Amino acid sequence: MMNGQMFQIASIVAASKKALQLSEPIRFSPLEYENKIEFVFLPQKKFLRTEKYTATNVSLWFEQIKKNGIQDIKLLCPYSVKDRQFLGFSNTTESAILCFYKSGKVTYFVADWQFDSVQKKWNILYSEHEWTNPPSKKPYFENNINSFRDVLLSIKELAEKIECENFANIFTSAINLLDGCSEYPDEKYGLSLPPIPQQNLQMFEAASVSDVFGAMGSWNDSPAYMAHKKGLSEEYETLSSELLKNVRLAILYAINEW
How far is CA 136 from the centre of its chain? Predict the structure, then answer.
């Protein structure tokens, strides 16, 4: 299933976009494993002094970006990584919340997750940074549903070749979600689904299911060895990279383009 950090930041962006479109307060429910979420804003000059502000929850953060003149908001994340093995650890998604303001200023928030050993939950601190010399146009993400389906079919076949039936079943489930033939799995686990259109949600949930790049027991683990044993290491590496790319592109399209 999707990395919890990616799920949270994607959900925040989707909820923000919905609230902006409807001119309503943001609706966002923290997950059980989250202790607190804070947002540290860049210092702002007010008359003869500089003010610093920290929002202690998502609702207060949203109200502050509205005061600052927010015009649009997008999710940004890389779709390739140097080492997929690290994706099972915290603070490795390299994702950001992009904020576009009416003044032309662009900032981004990045998260730092720290585990509270007393509360047995996570503390998340988002910090704001200015994007100096941003591109003249906002990032746009194409619908990659066809290439996503193609790589899911190919990697499902590979999983069958290397006798990893559990992963073959995962990829089959993702294909069914893309085609609207399955219930949303995140909802079954009690997660609040992002408030996005149905086709976007199908892509998001397919990406969530097929995000198999964790640590022990993940697609990075025994399948790599099984592929090596059968002389399919090159196919494994190529399809794994393509899968990660399409999972990330599907998330970016699903959350941003509606």
Answer: 24
pTM of the model: 0.91
- For the stretch 138-186, pLDDT in tens is 999 999 999 999 999 999 999 999 999 999 999 999 999 999 887 777 6
Query: How far apart are alpha carbons 108 and 98 in whole angstroms?
Result: 4
Which amino acid belongs to residue 210?
S
Domain ranges of the chain: 4-130, 145-256
- Tens of pLDDT, residue by residue over 74-133, are 999 988 776 666 565 566 678 999 999 999 999 999 999 999 999 999 999 999 999 998
250 to 38, 142, 223, 253, 254: CA distances (angstroms):
27, 9, 23, 5, 6
Which DSSP state fits 85? G
Main-chain phi, psi angles of 115, to 5 degrees: -85, 130
Question: What Rg, from alpha-carbon coordinates, does the chain have?
Answer: 19
Check if the beta carbon of residue 84 is closer than 8 Å to that of residue 245. no
Q: By the 8 A CB rule, do 11 and 29 touch? A: no
| 212-243 pLDDT tens trace | 987 656 888 889 889 999 999 999 999 999 99
**What pLDDT is stored for residue 50 in this prediction?**
86
**Virtual CA dihedral for 66, 67, 68, 69, nearest 10 degrees?**
60
CB burial string 237-253: b at 16+ within 10 A, e below? eebbebbbbbbbbbbbb
